[in-house]
Specification:
- With about 190 residues, the chain is mostly beta strands.
- The protein folds into 3 domains: about 1-60, SH3 type barrels (Roll); about 65-125, OB fold (Dihydrolipoamide Acetyltransferase, E2P) (Beta Barrel); about 130-185, OB fold (Dihydrolipoamide Acetyltransferase, E2P) (Beta Barrel).
- It contains no helices and 16 strands.
- It has strands at about 1-5, 10-15, 20-30, 35-45, 50-55, 60, 65-75, 80-85, 90-95, 110-115, 120-125, 130-135, 150-155, 160-165, 170-175, 180-185.
- The protein has a 5-stranded antiparallel sheet, with no helix packed on it.
- The chain is flat.
């Protein structure tokens, strides 16, 4: 059995029959009372965010999770379809299970989190940095570049993000899939 000393970011816990992922955690120590461990949790199978507090050393119930490499195939009415790179089995997941569905493009490698107990997919994680092509962007106006001026750009997946003025149509850019922000131009 695991205790509160085993809590770390990304750990998936079973609380009241629901699965939650640990976003952040900490410990409160006071002079008179026993130490308390707190965690901010995000629902894996629902969209709730909760905070939980335990006494130090209390038993917690982590869920065994496997990360498997899958390839994104297509999106249709039933959801997003992915193929296992090793067994070539296909799975379909709902849109809310995908971290950043706006940045998915066909053939892209992703990590699918699979519940070790039920063998069912729990979520889809994109790589931290993704390279995409700019399909539409207004031409940059020279001049006011003393500050970090941004302009809207449409990517090949249909997503719209803000990019610096020097980025033009047809260029490849690297974006952060977690925040949806421009990182750099790719040569």
């Amino acid at each position: 059995m695991a205790t509160t000393a085993d809590i770390r970011s990304g750990l998936i816990l079973k609380i009241d029959g629901n699965l939650y992922s640990v976003i952040e955690f900490g410990q409160n120590k006071t002079a008179r009372a026993a130490a308390k461990v707190w965690a901010k949790l995000k629902g894996v199978d629902n969209s709730r965010t909760i905070e939980q507090t335990w006494n130090s050393g209390e038993t917690i119930y982590p869920v065994r999770v496997e990360k498997k490499s899958f390839q994104f195939l297509y999106k249709d009415d039933s959801g997003y379809s992915f193929m296992d790179n090793e067994t070539f089995e296909q799975i379909t997941v709902a849109e809310e299970m995908v971290d950043a569905p706006a940045f998915l493009k066909e053939g892209q490698e992703v990590s699918v989190l699979i519940n070790g107990e039920t063998e069912l997919p729990m979520g889809v994680e994109l790589p931290d940095k993704i390279v995409l092509m700019v399909t539409y962007s207004e031409p940059g106006v020279k001049g006011d570049t003393a500050t970090r001026t941004l302009k809207p750009a449409t990517l090949e997946t249909g997503a719209s993000i803000n990019v610096p003025l020097f980025v033009n149509e047809g260029e490849l850019i690297r974006i952060n899939s977690k925040t949806g922000e421009y990182v750099e131009r790719v040569k």
